[in-house]
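Recall the central idea of this unit: under ordinary conditions, the amino acid sequence of a chain determines the structure it adopts. In this exercise we apply that idea directly, starting from the sequence alone.
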Amino acid sequence: MTTTPRTERALRLTVLVGESDGWHHRPVFTEIVHRAHRAGLPGASVFRGIEGFGTSSMIHTQRLLSLSEDLPVAVVIVDREDRIRAFLPRIEELVEAGGLVVLDECEIVRFDGDGGSGEGEQGR
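Accordingly, the structure predicted from this sequence is:
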């Protein structure tokens, strides 16, 4: 049985930081995830890059011959625009020293026949 998906407008927040960036003895990406959870956002996912460079122009890579402990990390959160914009002040102090915050308009696709409430887990 095929179901017609429902879509809704949303905003995707992507926060790009270095893996070694810290906040009070904890990785910045971990702090962002915990703040998102406390704010009641529906989910947050952390993706570790295999290669990249930032404002320092130094290339960081996962290759064995040039091991790096500061690979790029992206924290991605998707929710309604008003909820994402309300969350931005909660992470300002975490990224003002070198992180990059990107907002993209997007659509959430929900399938009614998913066997559940229609609410998926973003962090899977």
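Strands lie at 6-18, 45-48, 51-52, 60-61, 72-79, 100-110.
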